[in-house]
Design goal:
The chain folds into three domains: about 80 residues, Structural Genomics Hypothetical 15.5 Kd Protein In mrcA-pckA Intergenic Region, Chain A (Roll), CATH 3.10.290.10; about 100 residues, 2-Layer Sandwich (Alpha-Beta Plaits), CATH 3.30.70.580; about 80 residues, Pseudouridine synthase, CATH 3.30.2350. The chain is about 30% helix and about 25% strand. The protein has eight helices and 16 strands. The strands form four sheets. Strands 6, 7, 8, 9, 12, 13, 14, 15 and 16 form a nine-stranded mixed β-sheet that branches. A three-stranded antiparallel β-sheet has the order 2-4-5. The chain has a two-stranded antiparallel sheet with strand order 1-3. Helix 2 crosses helix 3. The protein is globular and about 65 Å long. The chain starts with 9 loop residues before the first helix and ends with a helix.
């Protein structure tokens, strides 16, 4: 069901949408996504539903915003910070319990209390979120551009997972896991794997992966009769999940953690660009 257009919208008054503005400015989807209000696709849906207005008129996707344009969402003004008052984007660390879905609205409310950020105008975005069945370290940001910057480089970072497994786990099987390069047609890179063998069939398995989804590790083990009952992310690149962050709690990323993460992401991107350039045949 399509959302109803707010009263006073251009559609309600019979006015046609404004054409994309020529000249300086950035596209509306990019500006609002960078402000953390939503993804570009979600913003396009707001436009289609008549919920988003620019100067009282429903814009077209791709409309460029000027400094004096008035933006409203569902009749409420949307104020974008000017460059002179911009503050560094926030990065949060959240310790999510396995089996608990990531609730970004709840995170936004708690972040507003801790960081004194406006609840109504800021939205938190997850960087490479884990499936609800898994848990551990989640990274959130209120800046869409920063989220995209990190997301473009996370495939080159290494990640540590701790798995609780049930089944006939052995050292030879662990060596086979490390040697695996593909699962169900997808590449899988296990950098390291080690087990803490428990009593009976329950064991803990520590793995370090690169560009590998948790589901791939689950599928590989399941095909050999080993069920992963719990998967926890304990490291994301240079950022570690420590005991100082209990389950269900969040904190702002320290400056050193932030710089280390961004430096590693940028270095990974640069290395990937060099690899692609080297692989490109010279005509």
């Amino acid at each position: 069901m399509r959302p109803r257009s707010p009263r006073g919208s251009s559609r309600a008054r019979g006015r046609s949408p404004s054409p994309p503005e020529e000249g300086p400015g950035e596209r509306i989807q990019k500006v609002l996504a960078a402000a953390g209000l939503g993804s570009r696709r979600e913003i396009e849906r707001w436009i289609e539903g008549g919920r988003l207005l620019v100067n009282g008129v429903v814009p077209l996707p791709g409309t460029k915003l000027g400094a004096r344009d008035r933006i409203t969402l569902d009749g409420r003004p949307v104020r974008l910070r000017s460059k002179t008052e911009e503050k560094p984007a926030h990065l949060l660390l959240l310790h999510r319990s396995p089996g608990t879905a990531l609730d970004l609205k709840d995170a936004a409310a708690r972040a507003a209390d801790h960081l004194e950020t406006p609840r109504a105008t800021r939205r938190w975005l997850a960087i490479q979120p884990l499936p609800p069945v898994d848990g551990g370290l989640e990274i959130l940001t209120d800046d869409g551009s920063l989220q995209q910057r990190i997301a473009r480089g996370v495939h080159a970072l290494t990640t540590d997972f701790v798995l609780r497994v049930r089944g006939p786990l052995s050292q030879s099987l662990i060596e086979e896991l490390k040697a695996t390069q593909e699962v169900e047609g997808e590449s899988m890179s296990i950098i390291e794997a080690s087990a803490q063998f428990g009593e009976g069939l329950n064991h803990w398995l520590n793995v370090t992966v690169r560009a590998t989804r948790p589901a791939q590790v689950r599928h590989w083990l399941a095909a050999r009769g080993i069920i992963v009952s719990r998967l926890i992310r304990v490291r994301f690149g240079p950022v570690h999940l420590t005991r100082e962050l209990p389950r269900g709690h969040l904190r702002e990323m320290a400056l050193g953690e932030r710089n280390a993460l961004l430096n590693e992401v940028d270095a990974a991107q640069a290395a990937l660009a060099l690899e692609r350039a080297a692989a490109t045949p010279v005509e």
